[in-house]
């Protein structure tokens, strides 16, 4: 692009950064087309682009970055992709370090600055931590609102490294007492040591590279001195020392020996003296500062252009020399003040400032001059019409240079903020009014309020404390709040206090909500629901008395519990009375027929009584399953094989109108649970699904494996880990939300009377819970129902198998073995003794545990102990343990209707022990007895 054409578009200056801004697409930033950008933003961009100092303006709440060419060199690989984009996206590694400062400037109108501050920046492949001097100040729009942040930056990493190198050099010299030996320091720093007596120079390889001389350990000082272009070092070192002319810290130009190029050198040094005070050694570091000198020259060239641009700015611009005396003011400032430029130059500005503000402004200005730091001041200036108006002056130091000495110039911008001041005054009045309202709320609120320090010690309370809890303010101030809590509520309160302390510095911390019991002055407790929030120093909390609400909820829960118990007992009474009638009725009829000598047709009464007894046993089993009190036999089981083995049974159960689809997942693996109970659960779910599809439909049974992480497991109230899932999905009538909420309640059923007990889903629920799993229901009316059962997955090394039901086999008989029977129920005891006698066993019997001990201690031969679990005095497990102490090899068979502590067989049974649940089949009992005896090699006698 030609020079004449590049200024036809905004920004009207050259350079890569200006070209990038001109090429920004309207959709590239939220600002839209450039002609619609805020005027203040365009003006400040015009101001920063020609500058050789690193300057960035960050605009709007997204902090869109616009910068000049000087800053582009510091961005590394990020440039040019960062122009016009939010800082949090282009520099995420640095955003946490700068976000709070940017917010203070943009929202609070503050100025944030620092010197030699390290920041985390990724400018290439690696993350760095360079150091910077910086000043962040607000950029105001025409209406006075702060539109962005002006960032003036200077990287000081080299300076910091040079200082460190010099310190390291001094430490080495003190410790070793010999010539400075130092490796090349970081980033272009050369190290030297000059022997003043011999004029011989010892230099590092980096020093030699900077001067373009061959690398050598020692060389004549004159070899390097001839390269200087100024006159100060043309005399010998010794002569200049005598005359006190040697500068230790100096910047000078040289012509490199190897290529003849002119470079600027910065030297920092010190003298080492002997005991008489005579200089014997000069040592220090040198650095190539040509790039900085060139930047300073560019800055001087841009000052004239800046003055032209300043005339078009809405604010009033001026510049000052290093001593703070104004040497140029913009025309807009002269017009505003009604004075000529000559009247304002030097210290003429003082005549325009309000007498009350002048001492403070002078003091702060002198401090800025002494420290060479950016400066802001608010003061009143007299306008041309004689009125006093508030102004904000923002003054920035800018480095310049002459041939040998660094100087500082000052650039200032004055902004009329009278309207903003008036707005702030109105806001302060509004805040004062809101404060009075808050104080009235504090005094009159029926809720108790408190402020506490971050350790939980009370610093303020409102009067509601005494009205509600009886404590006066004097009794509470300085007291730890935790000492007022019920002991059972202290631990949760301590945890919440730690969370609030940890989150007090984050603006996104949510209010804490916790409930606990607080002690009344009379020793009773009140339930309070707290809302608390921290700030930098204190915790603020409001507590509402919910004692009456909690007592009402407790009464409601008790009422609901009694309703549930009533429903449960009513359901049990209804079903059990029917089953008892089915048993007692046939027995009564058989007794009458036998008394009359009529024995024909007794089989049907026997079958009816037996069927009712089996239904009663099934009812009890389901109740135990729902209450999670049944005795399980959990083992690894192949879920897919188990469901496949149930295929024929399921087809017969479902009938022809229901299509069965089994879709196993090969990755499901083995679950850990009771195979028989799982079969029963699946069969119950299939029957429920069939009844929900009276006109036919489809039933799908699928399996899968899932891995629950911490979050998912917490949501499902399960332990994290791997699970096998079995899902049963139908296309039936579905359930309404009201029915779905009661689906697991015992004896709840939507089926007609006589077609269901309402215990099927209750049994599945109890089995899943007792197996450390879960069951879920998803249902929608007229769409269908899906029930998913979660069971823990077995360990990879455990063998998985599905036990096939035994086929018909002859009942095993005994061969005269001696069996000791311990049973407290006479009817059961009579039955067991008759069965054992009929099978060819010899029997001994007692009615309780203590009566069995003398027999066990005797020398009588006993081959097997058969004992009920629930015995008076000593229970069956205790009797078995005593028997094993006396007869270590004695096999044991337990009979149980319900064993409270035997939730799983593996937990209850020791080796050589068997268990059979009442009521049991005679053939099953015979097989269990035979299995127990088969494992016992010889009859046992008391030891």
UniProtKB/TrEMBL annotation:
It catalyses: ATP + protein L-histidine = ADP + protein N-phospho-L-histidine. Residues 571-795 form the Histidine kinase domain. Residues 302-372, 449-504 form the PAS domain. It holds the Pfam family PAS. Its EC number is 2.7.13.3. InterPro entries: CheY-like_superfamily (IPR011006), HATPase_C_sf (IPR036890), HATPase_dom (IPR003594), His_kinase_dom (IPR005467), HisK_dim/P_dom (IPR003661), HisK_dim/P_sf (IPR036097), PAC (IPR001610), PAS (IPR000014). The modification 4-aspartylphosphate is found at residue 868. It comes from the Bacteria. CDD domains: PAS. It is an enzyme of class 2 (transferase). Keywords: Kinase, Phosphoprotein, Transferase. PROSITE patterns: HIS_KIN (PS50109), PAC (PS50113), PAS (PS50112), RESPONSE_REGULATORY (PS50110). Residues 248-301, 375-429 form the PAC domain. Residues 818-933 form the Response regulatory domain. PANTHER family: PAC DOMAIN-CONTAINING PROTEIN, PHYTOCHROME-LIKE PROTEIN CPH1. This is histidine kinase.
């Amino acid at each position: 692009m030609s020079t004449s054409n590049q200024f036809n578009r905004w920004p009207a200056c050259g350079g890569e950064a200006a070209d990038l801004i001109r090429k920004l697409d309207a959709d590239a930033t939220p600002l839209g087309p450039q002609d619609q950008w805020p005027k203040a933003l365009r003006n400040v961009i015009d101001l920063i682009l020609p500058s050789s100092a690193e300057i960035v303006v960050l605009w709007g709440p997204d902090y869109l970055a616009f910068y000049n060419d000087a800053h582009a060199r510091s961005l590394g690989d990020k440039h040019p992709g960062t122009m016009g984009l939010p800082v949090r996206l282009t520099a995420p590694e640095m955003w946490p370090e700068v976000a709070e400062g940017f917010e203070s400037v943009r929202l609070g109108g503050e100025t944030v600055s620092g010197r030699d501050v390290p920041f985390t920046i990724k400018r290439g492949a690696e993350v760095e931590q360079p150091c910077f001097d910086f000043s962040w100040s607000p950029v105001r729009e025409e209406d006075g609102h702060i539109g962005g942040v002006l960032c003036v930056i200077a990287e000081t990493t080299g300076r910091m490294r040079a200082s460190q190198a010099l310190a390291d050099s001094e430490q080495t010299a003190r410790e070793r007492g010999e010539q400075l030996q130092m490796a090349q320091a970081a980033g272009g720093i050369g190290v030297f040591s000059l022997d003043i007596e011999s004029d011989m120079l010892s230099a590092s390889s980096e020093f030699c590279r900077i001067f373009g001389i061959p690398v050598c350990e020692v060389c004549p000082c004159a070899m390097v001195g001839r390269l200087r272009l100024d006159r100060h070092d043309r005399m010998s070192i010794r002569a200049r020392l005598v005359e006190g002319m040697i500068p230790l810290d100096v910047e000078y130009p040289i012509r490199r020996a190897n290529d003849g190029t002119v470079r600027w050198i910065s030297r920092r040094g010190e003298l080492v003296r002997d005991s008489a005070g005579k200089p014997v050694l000069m040592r220090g570091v040198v650095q190539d500062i040509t790039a900085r000198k060139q930047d300073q020259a560019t800055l001087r060239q841009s000052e004239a252009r800046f003055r032209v641009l300043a005339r078009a700015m809405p604010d009033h611009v001026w510049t000052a020399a290093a001593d703070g005396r104004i040497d140029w003011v913009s025309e807009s400032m002269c017009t505003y003040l009604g004075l000529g430029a000559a009247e304002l130059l030097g210290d003429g500005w003082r005549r325009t400032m309000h007498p009350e503000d002048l001492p403070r402004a002078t003091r702060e200005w002198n401090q800025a001059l002494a420290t060479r730091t950016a400066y802001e001041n608010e003061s009143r200036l007299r306008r041309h019409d004689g009125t006093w108006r508030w102004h904000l002056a923002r003054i920035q130091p800018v480095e310049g240079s002459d041939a040998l000495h660094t100087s500082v110039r000052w650039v200032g911008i004055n902004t009329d903020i009278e309207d903003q001041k008036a707005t702030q005054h109105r806001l302060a009045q509004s805040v004062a009014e809101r404060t009075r309202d808050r104080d009235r709320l504090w005094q009159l609120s029926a809720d108790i309020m408190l402020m506490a320090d971050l350790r939980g010690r009370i610093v303020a309370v409102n009067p509601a404390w005494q009205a509600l809890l009886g404590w006066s303010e004097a009794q509470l101030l300085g007291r730890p709040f935790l000492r007022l809590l019920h002991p059972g509520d202290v631990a949760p309160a301590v945890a919440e206090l730690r969370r609030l302390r940890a989150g007090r510095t984050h603006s996104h911390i949510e209010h804490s909500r916790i409930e606990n019991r607080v002690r009344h002055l009379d020793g009773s407790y009140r339930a309070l629901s707290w809302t608390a929030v921290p700030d930098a120093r204190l915790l603020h909390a409001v507590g509402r008395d919910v004692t009456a609400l909690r007592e009402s909820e407790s009464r409601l829960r008790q009422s609901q519990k009694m309703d549930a118990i009533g429903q449960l007992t009513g359901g049990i009474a209804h079903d059990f009375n029917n089953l008892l009638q089915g048993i007692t009725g046939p027995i009564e009829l058989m007794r009458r027929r036998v008394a009359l000598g009529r024995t024909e047709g007794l089989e049907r009464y026997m079958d009816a009584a037996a069927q009712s007894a089996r239904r009663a046993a099934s009812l009890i089993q389901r109740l135990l399953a729902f209450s999670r009190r049944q005795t399980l036999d959990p083992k690894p089981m192949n879920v897919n094989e188990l469901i496949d083995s149930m295929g024929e049974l399921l087809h017969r159960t479902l009938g022809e109108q229901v299509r069965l689809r089994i879709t196993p997942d090969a990755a499901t693996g083995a679950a850990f649970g009771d195979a028989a109970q799982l079969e029963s659960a699946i069969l119950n779910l299939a029957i429920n699904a069939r009844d929900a599809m009276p006109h036919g439909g489809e039933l799908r049974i699928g399996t899968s494996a899932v891995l629950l992480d911490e979050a998912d497991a917490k949501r499902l109230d399960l332990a994290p880990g791997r699970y096998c899932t079995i899902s049963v999905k139908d296309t039936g009538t579905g359930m309404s939300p009201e029915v779905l909420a009661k689906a697991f309640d015992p004896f709840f059923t939507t089926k007609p009377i006589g077609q269901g007990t309402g215990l099927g889903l209750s049994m599945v629920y109890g089995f899943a819970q007792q197996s450390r799993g879960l069951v879920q229901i998803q249902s929608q009316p007229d769409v269908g129902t899906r029930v998913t059962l979660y069971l823990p997955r077995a360990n990879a090394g455990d063998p998985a198998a599905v036990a096939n039901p035994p086929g018909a086999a002859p009942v095993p008989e005994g061969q005269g073995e001696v069996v000791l029977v311990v049973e407290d129920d006479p009817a059961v005891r009579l039955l067991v003794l008759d069965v054992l006698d009929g099978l060819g066993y010899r029997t001994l019997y007692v009615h309780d545990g203590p009566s069995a001990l003398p027999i066990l201690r005797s020398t009588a031969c006993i081959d097997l102990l058969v004992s009920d679990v629930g015995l008076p005095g000593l229970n069956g497990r205790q009797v078995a343990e005593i028997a094993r102490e006396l007869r270590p090899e004695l096999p044991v068979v337990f009979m149980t209707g319900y064993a409270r502590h035997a939730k799983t067989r593996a937990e209850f049974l020791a080796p050589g022990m068997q268990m059979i649940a009442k009521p049991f089949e005679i053939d099953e009992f015979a097989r269990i007895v035979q299995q127990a005896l088969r494992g016992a090699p010889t009859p046992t006698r008391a030891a």
